Amino acid sequence: MNEYHPDWDTVIIVSRVNQYYFLGTMQDGILFIEKNGNVSCFVKRSYERAIDESPLASDGVIRQMDSYRDAAAVIGEYRGNTYVESEVMTLSLLGRLKKHFRFDRIDSVDKTVFSVRAVKSDYEISVLEEAGRRHDDFLLNVVPTLLFEGISEAEFVGELYSELMKRGHQGLTRFSMFQTEMGIGQVAFGENSLYPTSFDGPGGSRGMNAAVPIIGSYNRKLKKGDSVFVDAAFGILGYHSDKTQVFVYGGKPPQEAVKAHNLCMELQNTLASRLITGAIPSEIYRTVMQELDESEKENLGGYKDRKVRFFGHGIGLQVDEYPVIAEGFDSPLEANMVIALEPKKGIAGFGVVGVEDTYVVTANGGRCITGGAREIVEI
User: Fewest CB within 10 angstroms: 38, 221, 232, 361, which?
Assistant: First the structure.
């Protein structure tokens, strides 16, 4: 904070994911970080659980409260220049805070928190590595056994979920993107993976219906020759790995799909080699795009006019973290950043092809923790 916002006095954290990152517990509470070094978390529910879970409980950081009035009575009403999570701090919550605290100015702390979280500790890396090992094994050895002619997308996702839970998956996938709802990821048969969604990713899905445009369709049944697109996260202990595998059921992929998929594998290897400490994400994106010809760029990042403008994204407690391999991200990569690279292309009449794997940034380039890219798997 002193580097990015030298005028700061107070940081207020209300998001449960960020509270977990700083405190090791997720409760209905509010965390105050002050420039003088004081840290206080006031918990409404559950105080007992926060005391049980947080390693900072013995330091007296965790306190019980009934309302924000209790917090103000302990740390004082005046908060000076205050930084909040603008992505999650609602006007109603801010209004309640203003009843009990006085602020000179309120600004966003999001970029700073995301930047701190982007560099993983040894503990975080070890958890992500374990998630990556289980993830790779699941996609390679379990998913093919769940596919049979006539199964619907929705039923397939149900089978995926059941098998993931048997292998220690945490059962949910978290995103920082506002109002993002997602099951285990994007799963689709055939051209359904080309169907547009509100989600900012290269894949697509029809989902169940307009009210639930995720999970999968009960009406779309698997048939011979179909592609099967599985873009899923594997979460354990709060942390996610990200990996995509494309299959084809009861047939062979068309040559156009094979050529596009191979290009995506090559791109992933090129991108991974450039995940070097000190490299600039926007320069990686720009350079790789400049090396491609127009035919290679066609439908790269999605399909038709629904293409994403990034090659990868940070990942950790949430699937969409800093940094992003895209224009506008100009801060140098640091060791132990974790990034999912996902070059993909849409193929008319077949579906989305391409790859995704999770990498740790090192001085020698990206170190893959999810097994690496594979060709389209024929089942």
Answer: 38
